[in-house]
Design a protein that fits this description.
This protein has 207 residues and is mainly alpha-helical. It has helices at residues 2-27, 38-43, 107-138, 144-170, 175-179, and strands at residues 83-87, 94-95, 100-105, 186-190, 195-196. The relative contact order is 0.15.
Length: 207
C-alpha cells in the first residue's frame, strides 16, 4: 500500500513540474519574431547585409470618389451677360487664382459702359445745380421745394451712377477710360481660387 502511494505522488509532482515548464516557455515566446528556415533562406535567394534606408514605390489600384471641401470648389458665372468669345482653359488644367479663364463680350457690355459714361456726365451737372440751389436756399433766394427737388434729382442719379460703377468694377474695367468715351468690347473672367478644372460646360459663341 505504501508503494502505490509513493508512485502516485511522484507522478503528480512530475505533472506539476511539466505544466510549470510549459507555462514558462509560453510566456517567453515573442510573436514579433519570424523564423526562417535554412531551406526558405536558400529558396528565396536571401542574403545577409547591412541596414540601409530606401524608398519603396508601389502603385495601388482602387475605385472611389474625391470630395473636396466646400471652399475648395468654385463655379464660374458672368457678372454681365454676353457671348463667349474664347475659352482659355481646358478640363483637367491646373489654374492659379486670378488666372484668366474666359473672354466675354456683347452689346450688353457696350450698353453698360454707355449708361455709366452718361450718368457720370449727368451727375456732375446735377451736383453743380444742387450746390447752387443749396446756397440760394440758405440766402432765401430759392424756395425750399426748389432746393429739395434739386437735391432729389442729384441723389437719384448718384444712386444710379454708384450701381453702374460697382458693376463695371466687378468685371475689372477702367472707369476713367469709360468716362472719357473709350469703351471696351470684351472683359475677362478670372478664377477665384487655385485648383484643377473639373468641368467645362461652355463653348465659343455661347450666350
Amino acid at each position: 500500500m505504501k508503494n502505490i502511494y509513493l508512485i502516485i505522488n511522484v507522478l503528480t509532482l512530475l505533472a506539476v513540474v511539466s505544466c510549470k515548464h510549459e507555462a514558462k516557455n509560453e510566456t517567453q515566446t515573442d510573436e514579433s519574431i519570424i523564423e526562417i528556415s535554412k531551406e526558405q533562406f536558400l529558396t528565396e535567394n536571401m542574403e545577409l547585409g547591412k541596414v540601409v534606408q530606401t524608398e519603396i514605390k508601389e502603385k495601388i489600384a482602387f475605385t472611389g470618389k474625391i470630395v473636396p471641401k466646400i471652399n475648395g470648389v468654385a463655379k464660374i458665372s458672368v457678372p454681365v451677360a454676353g457671348k463667349i468669345i474664347s475659352v482659355i482653359t481646358t478640363k483637367g488644367q491646373h489654374i492659379n487664382a486670378n488666372e484668366i479663364l474666359l473672354k466675354v463680350g456683347g452689346n450688353e457690355l457696350i450698353d453698360l459702359q454707355q449708361a455709366f459714361a452718361s450718368s457720370s456726365a449727368k451727375i456732375k451737372q446735377l451736383k453743380s445745380d444742387y450746390d447752387k440751389a443749396k446756397q440760394l436756399f440758405e440766402e432765401n433766394i430759392k424756395t425750399e421745394s426748389e432746393y429739395m427737388l434739386s437735391e432729389s434729382d442729384y441723389k437719384v442719379e448718384w444712386a444710379n451712377y454708384s450701381a453702374l460703377k460697382v458693376k463695371l468694377q466687378n468685371i475689372g474695367l477702367n472707369l476713367e477710360s469709360i468716362e472719357k468715351g473709350a469703351y471696351t468690347s470684351h472683359y475677362f473672367i478670372k478664377s477665384p481660387i487655385a485648383g484643377q478644372v473639373s468641368e467645362v460646360n461652355i463653348v465659343r459663341g455661347q450666350y
